[in-house]
UniProtKB/TrEMBL annotation:
Enzyme class: translocase
SUPFAM superfamilies: C-terminal domain of alpha and beta subunits of F1 ATP synthase, N-terminal domain of alpha and beta subunits of F1 ATP synthase, P-loop containing nucleoside triphosphate hydrolases
Function: Produces ATP from ADP in the presence of a proton gradient across the membrane. The alpha chain is a regulatory subunit.
Positions of the ATPase F1/V1/A1 complex alpha/beta subunit nucleotide-binding domain: 149-364
Location within or outside the cell: Cell membrane; Membrane
Keywords annotated in UniProt: ATP synthesis, ATP-binding, Cell membrane, CF(1), Hydrogen ion transport, Hydrolase, Ion transport, Membrane, Nucleotide-binding, Translocase, Transport
Molecular functions per Gene Ontology: ADP binding; ATP binding; hydrolase activity; proton-transporting ATP synthase activity, rotational mechanism
Cellular component terms per the entry's GO annotation: plasma membrane; proton-transporting ATP synthase complex
Organism: [Eubacterium] siraeum V10Sc8a
Site keyed Required for activity: positions: S362
Organism superkingdom: Bacteria
Designated name of the protein: ATP synthase subunit alpha
């Protein structure tokens, strides 16, 4: 075989000429310890807070502790195959989730990945889950109502678009039911809803999705689920993921509603993470920044002014109390962050008053400005009369011989309680709420037996829609009860109540 040196030289030269160096610089670290979903990594000097890190097998984790030589990270997947000495590389990006219309009607996990078996979500945009809340300049005061369809709330504790209203109560008092009813009531409005389930049973979340689907509410709803069986880091990021999805719609000039169910379990998940990361514990073993955990989340709910799109994000966080103790650490934190609270009582719930709202300690600090004029006019004294009735009721147990005035006030109070009762998944239109509250406040129900108040209410709605559609239409469209319509309403109520008796 004849080897020619010039040929060999030519081949070598052409190879050298065509050679392209493919050097990729990666910032890597080494796993020092792993366990309980926490990884301690040596290296990664330029790592950012909340940055996504990737293992060789593709599993990811999130950096939460940045120390001098080490990084403490929490797993976002299984740590079963991670071992000491494994290489970890930076991704250069923080945790982000898909946002947009494509998510409507879907059930996703805390990372925005679909878990409902309906195929991939082809979102056009992703956004980081952490974002600084809108500033003072970008906001405007809350002035448009968010109708829940629940009489007790819309009349006495009204919620406005862009408000943060806490729903607080013991377990099994109907907190989630109020949230779901509020979502269902948005069917005829343009409000986009996001329901975030944190640390709940998977069966409970499935039940919520079933209820929303049956009511036709999933078309405008996104469900973000981080169930009790999922890792604590996923439960920790779930509310921020949901909030980011809601902010997308707010910035597009739309109105969105987000429900966090519930932030007690969120705080517990964060406490578990913090203790495993060896952060110093404080009161009730929660870390020192547990207030900031919730304040930075709830401050992102806002009502933007027209220069910034004019959208809104209304937040309804839920807190579960232990034996009605609202002065515990997490409840007091969230009460101080929010613009009011709806307090649900176990005693009321078991005595058949549902929704079990206690109007005495429930308050809405900004929603009153957003209430429609008709409702404001008729429900002005409702909360006061209800509270006075509860006080009278407790005193009247001691004495049997009551004067006529007290008996009348007790009878009126009983009828107020009766008309504020409401079944689940049966929201009441605002015009009907105005009519029934006007009727009870102005004593049109005084001769109706207590057990027939529910039937009277149902028949009254039907009668008003058939015989006086002009009154209901006027309240619905103009949102005021004009003197002319008030006179018509008085005549209609007088006529109907007399015939009913």
């Amino acid at each position: 075989m004849d080897l020619r040196p010039d040929e060999i030289t030519g081949i070598i030269k052409s190879r050298i000429k065509d050679y392209g160096s493919k050097i990729r610089l990666e910032d890597t670290g080494t796993v020092v310890t792993v366990g309980d979903g926490i990884v301690r990594i040596h290296g990664l000097e330029k790592c950012m807070m909340n940055e996504l890190l990737e293992f060789e097998n593709g599993v990811r984790c999130m950096a939460l502790n940045l120390e001098q030589d080490f990084v403490g990270a929490v797993m976002l997947g299984s740590d079963a195959e991670i071992k000491e000495g494994d290489t970890v590389k930076r991704t250069g990006s923080v945790v982000s989730v898909p946002v947009g219309e494509e998510l409507l009607g879907r059930v996703v996990n805390a990372l925005g990945q679909p878990i409902d078996g309906k195929g991939a979500i082809l979102a056009k945009e992703t956004r980081p889950i952490e974002k600084i809340a809108p500033g003072i300049i970008t906001r405007k005061s809350v002035n448009v109502p968010l109708q829940t369809g629940i009489k007790a709330i819309d009349s006495m504790i009204p919620i406005g678009r862009g408000q943060r209203e806490l729903i607080i109560g013991d377990r099994q008092t109907g907190k989630t039911a109020i949230a779901i009813d509020t979502i269902i009531n948005q069917k005829k409005t343009d409000v986009i809803c996001i329901y975030v389930a944190i640390g709940q049973k998977a069966s409970t979340v499935a039940n919520v999705v079933e209820q929303l689907t049956a009511a036709g509410a999933m078309d405008y709803t996104i469900v973000v689920s981080a169930t009790a069986s999922e890792l604590a880091p996923l439960q920790y990021i779930a509310p921020y993921s949901g909030c980011t999805m809601g902010e997308y719609f707010m910035e597009k000039g739309k109105d969105a509603l987000i429900i966090y169910d519930d932030l007690s379990k969120h705080a517990v998940a964060y406490r578990a993470l913090s203790l495993l990361l060896k952060r110093p514990p404080g009161r009730e073993a929660y870390p020192g920044d547990v207030f900031y955990l919730h304040s930075r989340l709830l401050e992102r709910a806002a009502n933007l002014n027209e220069n910034y799109g004019g959208g809104s994000l209304t937040a309804l966080p839920i807190i579960e109390t232990q034996a009605g103790d609202v002065s515990a650490y997490i409840p007091t934190n969230v009460i101080s962050i929010t613009d009011g609270q709806i307090f649900l009582e176990t005693e009321l719930f078991h005595s058949g008053v549902r929704p079990a709202v206690n109007p005495g300690i429930s308050v809405s600090r900004v929603g009153g400005n957003a209430q429609i004029k008709a409702m404001k006019k008729v429900s002005g004294t409702l909360k006061l009369e209800y509270s006075q009735f509860r006080e009278l009721q407790s005193f009247s147990q001691f004495g049997s011989d009551l004067d006529k005035d007290t008996k009348e006030r007790l009878a009126k109070g009983e009828r107020i309680v009766e008309i504020l009762k409401q079944g689940q998944n049966s929201p009441v239109a605002v015009e009907n709420q105005v009519i029934i509250i006007y009727a009870v406040i102005n004593n049109y129900l005084k001769d109706i037996p207590l057990e027939k108040v529910g039937d009277f209410e149902r028949d009254l709605y039907k009668h008003m829609e058939e015989a006086h559609p002009d009154i209901t239409a006027s309240i619905r469209e103009e949102k005021v009860l004009t003197p002319d319509n008030e006179e018509k309403l008085k005549a209609a109520l007088k006529d109907f109540s007399e015939k009913y008796v």
